[in-house]
Specification:
- The complex is a heterodimer of chains A (207) and B (217).
- With 207 residues, chain A is mainly alpha-helical.
- Chain A has 2 domains: 44 residues, no CATH class; 156 residues, Butyryl-CoA Dehydrogenase, subunit A, domain 3 (Up-down Bundle).
- Helices cover 51% and strands 10% of the residues of chain A.
- The two termini of chain A are 14 Å apart.
- Chain B has 217 residues and is mainly alpha-helical.
- Chain B has 2 domains: 48 residues, no CATH class; 162 residues.
- In chain B, 56% of the residues lie in helices and 12% in strands.
- Chain B is built from 7 helices and 8 strands.
- In chain B, strand 4 and strand 5 form a beta hairpin.
- Classes of the chains: A mainly alpha (207), B mainly alpha (217).
């Protein structure tokens, strides 16, 4: 008998990862068991969850550098080209006095992606190094990461609107610049990393 | 929600539930009434969130969303007035402008998250609710709802709306902006899709689908 709170796994149940209905594990050699309610394939944990999350995380970490260092948008005005990076774009807002928008972009494009990368790295490390402290705080952090992660797309959408709207011939045009691709990749990959991670690993063998 | 401490006997599938985040086995309480949220005592995740019967509302909301969707995508959302050089923009024009300047990946991501996935979500929700309401069980009913749940977080209309607001403030002091009918349709689609996802209870829908399936044989 185990000396810790009983999990579905201990009791011989398979939780459906889609609809959360429990099924009894059957030993029908090699036949893929499916959920009786939603029809999804049953797995005790998300397959290769930790390896997949590491792969997505490291890729987005590499992409983060070109995303922040290269220009994300180019304004062409009377023949002069003014490329700007994410940080320079935020500076413009601050200089113009629109502090709220400046902070919003700073939050969505800089703070959130960095917080996501560090947060998921901390959680993966604590599983692999067996750090069993502050598990509830880590669970809350991951919930926050999953909730706010998608809002980083804000900058990409602003660019998508501006390139169509500001197209005034030789007067002024706005175009996307290389960092847009890298930044979009960072957002998509970190979102995938947050969903591919199985939180059940965090609580494995804990009191 | 109460946790089960080493009591493997008397466990029937109907009397227990597992926390979706930490796998803790929990006793189902009798007080699982609609509208009450049950949380996992160990990790705090929502385990039980049965909302009130929402099928008719969702059917109505998703049908309205489906009707408003084409104008929201095709009509101009806003227009910039500078001399005679005004250019109008909507979601698809933004995508095509990105595509034309060679940003294929960005164009694809924007198209997917702000047009295709929101549309497929509304359409799927309407078809699913319609089938459940009229007791139809096509083979695609369960994969359809699984696909809907998978796409849930990839529809980003509300973030696009924030992007529209940021652009308005950014360009407001440079040039005059006029708003098109597309904007009103877009706001309508956004509100309808937010209301229908808020009203939707996954657990309730799965139970309804199971009932329809049993009746179908």
């Amino acid at each position: 008998m185990v000396d810790r709170p009983l999990t579905a796994k201990d009791a011989g149940f398979l939780p459906c990862l889609v609809c959360h209905k429990l099924s009894v594990i059957q030993d029908d050699d090699g036949v893929q068991q499916r959920c009786s309610r939603c029809g999804a394939k049953l797995h005790a944990r998300k397959p290769d969850s930790i390896a997949r999350t590491w792969a997505l995380l490291l890729t987005s970490f590499i992409m983060l550098f070109p995303a922040y260092l290269l220009p994300i948008m180019t304004v062409t005005s009377f023949g002069h080209r003014y490329p700007s990076t994410i940080m320079e774009g935020i500076e413009h807002f601050i200089q113009d006095g629109t502090y709220f928008i400046g902070f919003l972009i700073f939050f969505a494009s800089i703070l959130v992606p960095v917080f996501k990368l560090l947060g998921i790295t901390l959680i993966l490390l604590s599983i692999q190094r067996n750090w069993k402290t502050s598990l509830r705080q880590k669970a809350v952090m991951l919930r926050i990461i999953r909730f706010i992660g998608r809002w980083s797309m804000l900058d990409i959408f602003v660019i998508a609107i501006m390139v169509a709207l500001v197209n005034l011939g030789s007067l002024t045009t706005i175009e996307a610049a290389p960092a847009a691709t890298f930044f979009a990749m960072v957002v998509v990959l970190t979102m995938l990393a947050a969903t591919s991670f199985d939180t059940r690993h965090l609580w494995e063998n804990t009191l | 929600m109460t946790s089960l401490q080493n009591s493997l006997h008397n466990l029937s599938l109907e009397s227990v539930a597992a926390c979706p985040e930490c796998d803790l086995l929990l006793q189902r309480n009798d007080e699982e009434v609609p509208g009450i949220v049950g949380k996992c005592p160990r990790c705090g995740a929502v385990v039980h969130d049965t909302k009130k019967d929402s099928l008719p509302y969702i059917l109505a909301l998703s049908l309205s969303g489906l009707i408003l969707f084409p104008p929201a995508m095709l009509l101009p959302i806003m227009k910039l007035n500078v001399l005679d050089l005004g250019a109008s923009a909507n979601i698809l024009q933004g995508v095509s402008a990105l595509y034309r300047s060679g940003f294929y990946l960005v164009a694809f991501v924007v198209l997917l998250t702000s047009a295709i996935i929101p549309f497929v979500k509304v359409a799927l929700l309407f078809c699913l609710s319609f089938c459940i309401r009229f007791k139809l069980f096509p083979d695609s009913l369960r994969p359809g709802f699984r696909a809907y749940l998978f796409m849930e977080e990839w529809g980003m209309l509300e973030i696009y709306m924030l992007g529209i607001l940021v652009s308005i403030i950014k360009l407001g002091d440079i040039a005059e902006i006029s708003y098109g009918i597309g904007l009103y349709c877009f706001v309508g689609v956004l509100a309808l899709s937010l209301f229908s996802s808020a009203a939707l209870s996954e657990d309730q829908y799965w139970n309804l689908i199971e009932k329809v399936k049993r009746k179908d044989g």
